[in-house]
């Protein structure tokens, strides 16, 4: 049932596909590596800037917050970095100041949930 000509055509086509994907994967891998390097470098610069504006205790507290709520820690870091870039910080942020900043952010971002219960009237129910 196996046609030798069909088998050679399949093998040649498979090699062509592998060659195409091999070259494409190499270029894609190089681009991916470059993007990862850029992200890693940006993160290193970010951490360096944070270490310059935060005290050791504040950095430790922010690291603990990042373990539990990474998005909240990232937001606090963004606020701190923006303030430092605008020149609003004259000294290192202490743990107490970080706590007060966290409390302010919690008040601003607290979500108010409201539950409304609507009862549906049954078709069989008569309120006449």
TrEMBL record:
Polar residues composition bias: residue spans: 23-32
TM region(s), chain numbering: none
Any one GO cellular component localisation term in the record: nucleus
Region (Disordered): 16-42
GO molecular function terms listed in the Swiss-Prot or TrEMBL record: DNA binding
Start-end of Basic and acidic residues biased regions: 33-42
Family, as annotated: Belongs to the PDCD5 family.
Protein name per its UniProtKB record: DNA-binding protein DDB_G0278111-like isoform X1
Native source species: Phoenix dactylifera
Gene name per UniProt: LOC103703415
